[in-house]
Every structure is written in C-alpha cells, then in structure tokens.
Amino acid sequence: MTTREVHLELLLGKSVLDLTGKAIGRIEEVRAEQQGREWIVTEYLIGYAATLERLSAWTIGLKILHLLGAYKIHGSYRVPWDKLDLTDPDKPRLLCSLNDLKLLEP
Q1: Domain with 42 in it: what CATH number?
Q2: CA-based nearest residue to 104, from 40, 67, 61, 69
Q3: What pLDDT score does 29 carry?
C-alpha cells in the first residue's frame, strides 16, 4: 500500500467537484482518528454546515440562522476519506455520487 502526505492546511477552503465537474462546496473541516502514533483521516466535511462545525458553533450558529429565516441547511456533506480524489490537491474530486454521501446534520 502506498501512503501519501497532503498538507491539510492547504486543503481547507478548496472547492470539491462532483463526478460531473460541478462544485458541491468547500472543504471546511477534516476528521481524524488516532491509530497508534499516527492520525488517520476518516472523513472530510464540506459545505456551509461544516463551517459551523469547524468553528464549534452549531448551537449558536443555527439559532442565528433560524432568526434570519433559515430553517434547514442544504448542501453540507460528510465525505469518507476514500471517496475523495486528492491526486490534484488543488482540485479535489468526489469518487462517488452525492446520493452516496451522508448529509452533515447537527
């Protein structure tokens, strides 16, 4: 198995393309688990709700959005590590359809 390093700080904010080349949102957060002495990426959070997750502001952020009239946040996804092609880190691409992804919910 080949391992590859990608600097996470360079991925944050990058627009992710779906299978058709359409942008679905930006990488806002990365989740990882510790395995021994290493940290292994488990999933990428993409979209507006991921921004709230990144800022640890779910509760406050959702209340503010509700006050402004937004009751549901659309287009935020949890992308498993193996469903994101990082061959070109400047243009990450999904390796699956949007229907295969879980929505990011509080």
Answers
A1: 2.30.30.240
A2: 61
A3: 87
Percentage of residues in the chain with pLDDT exceeding 70? 68
* Residue 10, helix vs strand vs coil: helix
Q: Tell me, what amino acid is at 21?
A: G
With respect to residue 2, please indicate whether it lies within any of the assigned structural domains.
Answer: no
- Give how many domains the chain has, as a whole number: 1
Full domain range(s) for residue 39: 8-95
pLDDT for the residue numbered 52: 59
d(CA 77, CA 102): 6
- Sign of the torsion formed by the C-alpha atoms of 45, 46, 51 and 52: negative
Q: Is the pLDDT of residue 69 over 90?
A: no
Angstrom distance (rounded) from CA 16 to CA 14: 6
In a domain, 103, yes or no: no
Percentage helix, strand, coil for the chain under 3-state DSSP, each rounded to 5: 25, 35, 40
Whether residue 23 is contained in a domain is answered as yes
